[in-house]
Amino acid sequence: xxxxxxxxxADMSDKSNDRINRxxxxxxxxxxxxxxxxxxxxxxxxxxxxxxxxxxxxEKLDRxxxxxxWEALYPSSFLSALSTNISDHCPLHLVLEANLKRGRRxxxxxxxxxxxxxxxxxxxxxxxxPWIRNPFKRLVAKLKATAKQLAxxxxxxxxxxxxxIRIANEVILHLDIAMEGRALTQAEVDLRRLLKRKLLGLAxxxxxxxxx
Length: 212
Fold this sequence. Notes:
Blueprint: E1 2-3, E2 6-7, H1 22-34, E3 38-39, E4 42-43, E5 49-50, E6 58-59, E7 65-66, H2 68-73, E8 78-81, E9 92-95, H3 118-126, H4 135-158, H5 161-181, H6 186-211
Helix pairs in contact: 3-4, 5-6
């Protein structure tokens, strides 16, 4: 992807040096967020382009951006990069139905630290492992246990923020329409008030995720 003289990257880690146009990078990230897209993880490669010089500049210019609906349709998809061959770009190879017997890659979200319960989950998981004499093996065991518990906690208590916002807005809309023709029951009034409070927190989380 090229715009003018600038290659479009989404993050500072997408380039091997610090010669970065931050304004273009920010605009590209905002575009991805506005379109509600998600980048598929690229297995096996960090960069996909090289300027082929003696001390090359490496960048990740090639990526696969998909919607939430697409991910739900192809949950076992697998993206990898092929040889550059005669090009300066790596062709991307996307398998829609990859039969891979492996766990889902753990991805830490920075907004988790602002959610109630995060500290307790980390503390409990970190101290749950039995004593291992080898300090390196002990550290690996603690990290694995913490990652596993954080993933479970996120799925149960955090979930898909955008989906929760859509559901809450849909319920509020139905209650708003009902309120035009009749008086809401007390249970409906309480539910509407609760959903509006929840939306404030969810909207704050969504902004944090977008900034990340």
